[in-house]
Amino acid sequence: MGNRPDPPLDVPEYTSTALRAPRQPFVRLPSFDDASAPVFGRDRVGESDNDLTAGGPLGERIVVSGRVVDSRGRPVRNTLVEVWQANAAGRYAHSSDNHDAPLDANFSGFGRCITDDEGAYRFVTIKPGAYPWQNHRNAWRPAHIHFSLFGTTLSERLVTQMYFPGDPLHRHDPILNAVRSGARDALVASFDLDTTVPEWALGYRWDIHL
Amino acid sequence: MRTPSQTIGPFFRGMLLEQPVVFEDGDVRVEGVVYDGAGNPVDDALVELTQPGGFGRCATDAAGRFRFQTRAAPFADVMVFARGLLRHVVTRVYFSPDDLPSIARSATLLARREGDSYRFDIHLQGPDETVFFDV
User: Fold this and answer.
1) Tally of CB atoms within 10 A around A109
2) Confidence at B104, pLDDT banded by 50, 70, 90
């Protein structure tokens, strides 16, 4: 896991870890050290796939952008960024989401893009709603957007979640709080007036360090 | 500060690109089931398989099963993502016992030949827990 501040795998407060977190120690195998990340999907990413609002969904339109950099701070160029999220009411367009909240026929909830020469990505979407998840009594996930990135080495592969600043649910969420306190803020975007588009959409900035 | 991992959650299906064909000319099928510590199939996992120059991604079905078309030489790196995994786990499938690394429990990394395909089950936990690597 290198020096990435990943959460531990076995977190009793997150009940799904109980039967899924491996119990044996991870094994070091030097041949993984120089393994390259897969190259994937670039030819399957359309120009406007980074706009999740094309269908005209309900909700608060937002822009989410930032840079993808490697462990030495260099931009990660031409890498696939995939995102997915709940709609404004807190419901995913997914068959196993049974939350009693409306689906939005105009919102599929996923997008993708390729980073530019500066390692930058940009999505236009709507702010996802919070939703209940039955992990414990009165459990609610804070608003979040799922991200998937490949990077350039196998060790940089990252699937994570971006949260919104000032959300009172943060301190109640066992998934976010599985990350140690000093590293948790790295998952929370900043409101950014420069990313905000006048008369159109609030902007959030979130840089990703692979 | 590197960005920490979070679980993929249960709702990625249909949201992420999938590509179970690793190589168009791949001559073998690799298939298997992801199991949890109680021996139940994990029906909401994402499995990724990487070989030099090739990559595949497959969500497990209702029976926990995944399937790839690839090449049987000499191994492939495998990542598993799922609800309940705060960070994905990394393993490796080998196609011949001669290629296995000399580590404990290495037999869990060996695919079994079944007809014209290879069977490779992944046990996240339990007595048959698969070897996972520190990557």
Assistant:
1) 26
2) very high
Contacts of A74-78 with C-beta under 8 Å, sequence gap 24+, read A74/A119, A75/A115, A75/A117, A75/A118, A75/A119, A75/A120, A76/A115, A76/A119, A76/A149, A76/A151, A76/A152, A76/A156, A76/A210, A77/A115, A77/A116, A77/A117, A77/A118, A77/A119, A78/A42, A78/A114, A78/A115
Looking at residue B97, what is its pLDDT?
Answer: 97
ipTM: 0.97
Residues of A involved in catalysis: 92, 131, 141, 144, 146
- The nearest CA of chain A is from the CA of B118 a distance in Å of 22
Given a contact cutoff of 8 angstroms between Cβ atoms, the answer to whether B55 and B21 are in contact is: no
Residue type, B49: L
Report the number of distinct structural domains present in chain B.
Answer: 1
Q: Determine the topology of domain A29-209 in CATH.
A: Protocatechuate 3,4-Dioxygenase, subunit A (2.60.130)
Q: Is A135 at the interface with chain B, CB within 8 A? A: no
H helices then E strands: how many in chain B? 0, 9
In this prediction, the residues of chain A whose per-residue pLDDT falls under 70 are 1-2, 41
The answer to whether A20 contacts B125, with C-beta atoms less than 8 Å apart, is yes
Question: Rounded distance, CA B18 to CA B10, Å?
Answer: 16
